[in-house]
Amino acid sequence: MVKRLVLASPRGYCAGVERAVETVERALELHGAPVYVRKQIVHNAHVVRDLERRGAVFVDNVGEVPRGSNVVFSAHGVSPAVRHSARFRGLRAIDATCPLVSKVHAEARHFARLGYTIFLIGHAGHEEVDGTTGEAPQSTLLVETAEQAEICYATTNRQRAVKRIVAAVDLLLVIGSRNSSNSNRLVDVARAGGVVAYLIDDESEIDEAWLDGVESVGITSGASAPESLVRRVVGWFRERGVSQVESLDGAFEDVFFKLPREVRADGVTRT
């Protein structure tokens, strides 16, 4: 019988994801619905559905966006070809690319100009990989078989938090969507540490059979999962009599990114 929950820290939204989601929310407030978004703004089904209810329309490519409309580029970034296509269609682009991803793009351009070959570790078809490759397509080689590189502070901190928590729990639940690469890696890290771990979108996916013989359950969430989902999972356990909830101390995150100029009060023109 589960007696206690242990919450990993840090967990959930990183600064880049928080900025991207708020960008879409502000765009809807300023321009009204619909606001088009290329790809999922972040890889979380709950976040996407919530924004859809507010009037966001997610598309796979800018060719689906009516000419002259507002389009938001997701946190994962886009290639120069996508930006060119948006300009060609007369779209008003709002760039919600994570600044850390933009930094990677700048590094790719820099080293390509110097004549280097760039080895990019990632998964073919992932938006971040496509965007980065597009900055220097003739100089970039995609490597998919190596272990995922630590390319941002949030990924590193959340994996370290999992490594700390596995010694204190019998089972770990990772809250995140199936298409979230960083959430899947948290499951891998836990299993590599000898703890049974499952990826769940929300509390409805918890299988009570997993809890047989389990006294301590750890909970964490990927960088694109809102804290509200953690509260829902904790509530699920409280409804079943679990009253002991504790949090492990971890790295303190104070990273903050300004919103894109197009949706800031000091730089936006209402339409």
Please give a structural write-up.
β6, α5 and β7 form a beta-alpha-beta unit. The radius of gyration is 20 Å and the shape is globular. The chain is α/β, with parallel strands linked by helices. The chain has eight helices and eleven strands. It has three domains: 107 residues, Cobalt-precorrin-4 Transmethylase, domain 1, CATH 3.40.1010.20; 90 residues, 3-Layer(aba) Sandwich (Rossmann fold), CATH 3.40.50.11270; 43 residues, Cobalt-precorrin-4 Transmethylase, domain 1, CATH 3.40.1010.20. The longest helix has 17 residues.
N/C terminus separation: 57 Å
Oligomer: single chain
Name the CATH superfamily classification of the largest domain.
4-hydroxy-3-methylbut-2-enyl diphosphate reductase, catalytic domain
Into which percentage range does the β-strand content fall? 15-25%
CATH topology of the largest domain: Cobalt-precorrin-4 Transmethylase, domain 1
The side-by-side strand order for the widest beta sheet comes to: 9-8-10-1-11
What is the count of DSSP helices, taking H or I runs of 4+ residues? 8
Number of domains: 3
Helix content: 25-40%
What general outline do the C-alpha atoms trace?
globular
Largest sheet: 5 strands, parallel
CATH architecture descriptor name of the largest domain: 3-Layer(aba) Sandwich
- Mean pLDDT rating: 90
Low-confidence stretches: 146-150
* Order of H and E elements: EHEHEEHEHEHEHEHEEHE
CATH C-level label of the largest domain: Alpha Beta
* Number of distinct beta strands: 11
Structural class: alpha/beta
Gyration radius, rounded: 20 Å
